[in-house]
Amino acid sequence: MSHDQLMEKVHFVDEAQFCPRGLIMSTHCVESVPFRFYKENIMTTDAEKSFHDIRLNREEDIYIQLNFKAANISYQYAAVLEENPFMPNLLHINDEDRIIAEKFLQQSIVSFQKEKLLSQIDEALDNHDISAFRKLTEQLKQL
């Protein structure tokens, strides 16, 4: 089997534990398990057994999850990352859920900004600082 044929069997995914043959590897700089291999419903942390299984079953697809610092902003990793076809439907985020989450986040930010401005306005009033009061109330109106 050539290297190209082998690479066709390798898939980089998130949540590899849901795959028929999943491999999770983590660097020291993250708080994830260092190594796990999943085959059907069996999980092992023994790297030798795992790589032996991979060598013996080269014709089967292998799904690899890499955990490393700033993985979510690595364009190189994003370029090879595939959607996990074995991910349970409950874990998929659809566009509607994403929009709801974005709205919630935006509302939370505005609420935090309002609370902060109100606190600063109270402080300006306590200090009899008219210019700060006017500036802060104007900022509050803009929200």
UniProtKB/TrEMBL annotation:
Domain IDEAL: 104-140
Alphabetized SMART domains for the sequence: IDEAL
UniProt xrefs under Pfam families: IDEAL, UPF0302
Protein name, as recorded: IDEAL domain-containing protein
Originating species: Heyndrickxia sporothermodurans
